[in-house]
Amino acid sequence: MNPFESGARKLIPAVLIYVKRGDSVLMIHRVGKDGSARAGDFHSGKWNGLGGKFEAGESPWAAARRELMEESGLSISERDFRCLGVLQFPDFKPAKSEDWLCYVFVAALNPSEPAPLLHETSEGSLHWVPSGELLDLNIWSGDRHFIPLVLREEPFLGTIWYENGEAVRHELRPISRR
Question: Does 1 reside within a domain?
Fold first, then answer.
């Protein structure tokens, strides 16, 4: 029997959102309010795009909109999100037998309008990061493979395999825009 059907493995649907404003991207630094590590946070210390797990019955667009609102306070219409691709992370959380399937979105804010005020959240601190500095941050090692595609807004499908918190293999394939 299939390990997902038998319950031996769980598939966690999630969204990852990169909000662009001019040449900057909204990122969350997963640290406590005092800059310390977040106890029990699988992403503690990492810089990520915003996002999280689906709620029951949500579409990818609804999950992206809700997660962005929850993590940043930004309200963007679902039509303003562009799905760039889907990433699979087999055995991403091995202790929980979890594989993650992540829809990757980009949304753009008008750079001529004032930048939204950023606030601390229970998830971490929000920052506008120049796109040229993203790969210099403490991001997941696998993110280094797909973030350039996100910045170019190039559609893709991919799989990234992790062992002990480090990407050990990846397959990323562009999707034709035809």
Answer: no
How many separate domains does the chain show?
Answer: 1
Instruction: Put residue 57 in one of left, alpha, beta given phi > 0 → left and psi -120 to 50 → alpha.
Output: left
| Lowest-pLDDT range of 4-8, 56-60, 132-136, 165-169 | 4-8
Q: What angle do CA 36, 37, 42 make, to 5 degrees?
A: 160
Residue range(s) defining the domain that contains residue 33? 11-174
Q: Is the pLDDT assigned to residue 87 strictly greater than 70?
A: yes
71 close to 19: Cβ distance less than 8 angstroms: no
pTM greater than 0.85 (yes/no): yes
Confidence band of 36 (pLDDT split at 50, 70, 90): low
**Can you give the CATH number for the domain in which 19 is found?**
3.90.79.10
One-letter identity of residue 102: C
